[in-house]
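Reading a protein record of the kind used here takes only a little practice. Think of the row as the fold of the chain written in a discrete alphabet. With that in mind, consider the following protein and its fold in token form:
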Amino acid sequence: MSWSPEQIAVVESARFASVAAGGYHADDVERLRVRALTAMRKAKPLPDLDAMALRRTPRGGVSRTQVAGFLTLMSVWSATTVVEHPDEVARRERDAEIAALTTRDDDTTLRWTHEQMDHVREKKFTLVGRASTSYDEHDVDDYLDSVVIAMRRGIELPDPQYARFDSAGLRRGYDPKEVDDFLDEIAHMQPEG
């Protein structure tokens, strides 16, 4: 879970009434609002809003009551919203999907280790820019996902010699030598038992 579009919209549109006397400096309040908004857009926890100094002004400024209500709302959200980076959310969902796959309990089930699965799942390749010989990232990632799924199911891995990846063309893509070397490694992987 992360900040909802509705929460972000509330912070984006937050405006505070001007008062004739005894308000907070408008610049301080705006700085606080922008810091909170920036954190929310980056799927990060809110900064410590209580630690941000809001100066009072004897003349003018913005409503202290409205700012206090805004800070209370932010504190409640901060205490009740679990903030996770989008990459972590996607990884957790993919892991849950893979874990939900049933494995066979007969004698033909291959036993792939968690270390082998993690090794494939966590493999990173160098991104090369605008090279006609680079591999499309999504094609390679999809193939590696199919390898992990096969490991979870306890079946033979998809044969790397039949893996085909489109060229990334003018976009950034994976270094083909690194990918090909890893495909050779996958071709030689053996189940535990």
